[in-house]
Structure prediction request, 370 residues.
Amino acid sequence: MTRVAFYGSSLLSSYWNGAATYYRGIIKAMAHHGFDVTFHEPDAFDRQSHRDIEVPDWARVNVWPATPEGLREAAARAADADIVVKASGVGYADDEILTQVMAAARPDALRVFWDVDAPATLAAMRENPDDALRRMLPDLDLVLTYGGGDPVIRAYRDLGARDCVPIYNALDPDTHHPAPPQPRFEADLGFLANRLPDREARVAEFFLRPARALPDRRFILGGSGWQQDQMPNNVRCIGHVGTADHNAFNCTPRAVLNVARDSMAATGFSPATRVFEAAGAGGCLITDYWEGIELFLQPGEEVLVARDGQDVVDLLSSIDADRFAAIGEAARRRVLAEHTYDRRAEQLRAVLHEARARTRSAAPGKEVAL
Prediction:
């Protein structure tokens, strides 16, 4: 077994942690392909009191105190691994985690930075030449991202990365699948996302504008940070929706909405986890436009694409329930055939083999078992 030390925000909780289902999907699939993963997550931001899952049988989890001493002890455990991964967006002492875990890694270990928000990370590095990750990039063996396509690959290489490979979001069919509708999620359009500054203007355009234009239709908004008193009368805020309820949330409304954050939409090639969750459940997805969507789902047949709020209004007004259902079922078939985490793990294994070969060639004697 190839031992992996993975330092990220949280595997156990999706609370203020949009990467949770991505981590779960890819790490579960990695376990099926011979990787023994220990996920190291800080006890921060009240996530541990909002766990969606307990420690699974496909990963080990080390929850460490969010203190300097807790960080030192967690970082030291990187020395036990064949592959050391630091993910972006831990939220607590990110620079210190990166520095300490890579310093603790054995000389023969692969050292990987895994970026779950590449546009934001790249912007930070461009703005600050002394950024910790920017300084360390040339010494890392590999950068992985969960999206971004060629623009992100080129940007990382230009900043000194040896290589950058997207491992896109995908579907875990054991976790996200059709489920019975629930009356509490009934609506014409559902939207599930935490409130974030760089998403808010697009949410106003693609969700709130249609709600105001269609006062007789019902809209449901899930996620942390939204305030009911700031919403139109036909929008119902339901707060944080745990992952156990995602299938019912995606199956119950006539359609569900995906809205990219500003940077993700501008970069393109960045399908959110929600895209595959909705498709896996057979929900009909309406998404804002971003470049590269046709690589994942076919517009008009497997997904509905809106370029502004009026397009959302037109789609909700012109498409009947049977057509919404047919699009959702077509999306489910597509992602099951082409976009599962098992497929991503096969790709990841090949990428790591290549990185090992490249590193061994540059530094003879450096061996990493895969």
